[in-house]
Amino acid sequence: MCSSVSIIVAVRWQSIYAVRGTETQPYPSDRSSHAESEQSPLTVHILAAVAEHEREMISERTRAALRAAKTRGTRLGNPQLAKAAKRGTAAVRANARRFAANVLPIIEEIERAGITSHNAIAAKLNERNIRTARGGKWTHVQVGAVLRPFAP
């Protein structure tokens, strides 16, 4: 028996070929799970209805299992949300410090050349095609954020 995913894929392929008006089958004709002749719109609708019904059944089983777990007293979700948030924040800060430490020598070189404003430093970084941590162009705000952790 076909899974609901393969039925959905078959329905989508049949819909594509029906819209194009081609006689080509989406699957090789030697596959035994698919008819060799083009499927009629009725067959496509039936397969779509079966796939939708299966999706609804999976959804209902999931909701019922969550309700049962809740009535048993199981705490749903992340029971250590505050701890996970702290770990996430620490990881973001560590990545920011690592990036700042990598780009700081370049900024110091620019400053030694006599350029001290954040706007001018950002312009020089953009001239050198050095990207920000997210791959964008530099602005005075990002330059200040990189310099801030290392400020005396």
Overall spatial form: elongated
**Mean pLDDT, as a whole number?**
81
> Which strand-content bin applies to the residues?
under 5%
Instruction: Report the structural category.
Output: mainly alpha
**Number of E strands:** 0
Describe the structure concisely for a colleague.
With 152 residues, the protein is mainly α. Helix content is 64%, strand content 0%.
Primary descriptors:
152 residues; mainly alpha; elongated
What does this entry look like structurally?
With 152 residues, this protein is an all-alpha fold. The protein has two domains: 4-71, no CATH class; 81-150, no CATH class. It contains five helices and no strands. The mean pLDDT is 81.
Topology:
Layout: H1 4-20, H2 41-71, H3 81-112, H4 118-127, H5 140-147
Helix pairs in contact: 1-2, 3-5, 4-5
